[in-house]
Amino acid sequence: xxxxxxHVEFVIDRSGSxxxxxxxxxxxxxxxxxxxxxxxxxxxxxxxQFDNTIENVYDFVNINEVPELTNxxxxxxxxxxxxxxxxxxxxxxxxxxxxxxxxxxxxxxxxVILTDGEENSSRKFSNDKIKxxxxxxxxxxxxxxxxxxxxxxxxxxxxxxxxxxxxxxTFTADPMHTSYVFSKASAHVCHTRAMSSxxxxxxxxxxxxxxxxxxxxxxxx
Length: 221
Prior knowledge:
Number of domains: 1
Largest sheet: 6 strands, mixed
CATH architecture: 3-Layer(aba) Sandwich
Helix content: 40-55%
Structural class: alpha/beta
Strand order of the largest sheet: 3-2-1-4-5-6
CATH class: Alpha Beta
Shape: globular
Strand content: 15-25%
CATH topology: Rossmann fold
């Protein structure tokens, strides 16, 4: 593994209901990316948007070359193929990493998922299959998964697909709380990227997740 190198996967819901927080999602995402650009250390970044179709917007791009989202590149529509989006990206990211020499692979893979509602249109992957895949990547390769969700119980849904409760956050789908959840996620990703390999290993084996009780309390009305 290459010391100091992190890869971030961001999988973001663009189903029709995201229209209610469109501006805040675009702004929050752009702030997230901007903060990652300021963080020391090598970083590549992938963005995938999903509704009832799945679009990989860019893949393993140097963080400094990641463009901002706009109203032209993030257009809410369709339904919510959450499981298919997660499954597709786990496979695609894993395949990409397999093609990289071991000494050049990132020492940390951080997989962020954001949605504003329940799964309702996946066809390829079941809940149990996604849990199996996430557990495998977490246990064998020490990937970190973060689940951010509005209008559902993020901790319950995240746990059902293998993401620890401490790394899931429920937020209220309004401007203030949408911005807040992006901010907390970005702060955690920056902190994780800055960890030494030893500290990251200790963090990954600990019971605590990405967010404190206080963090979570601030994400809802």
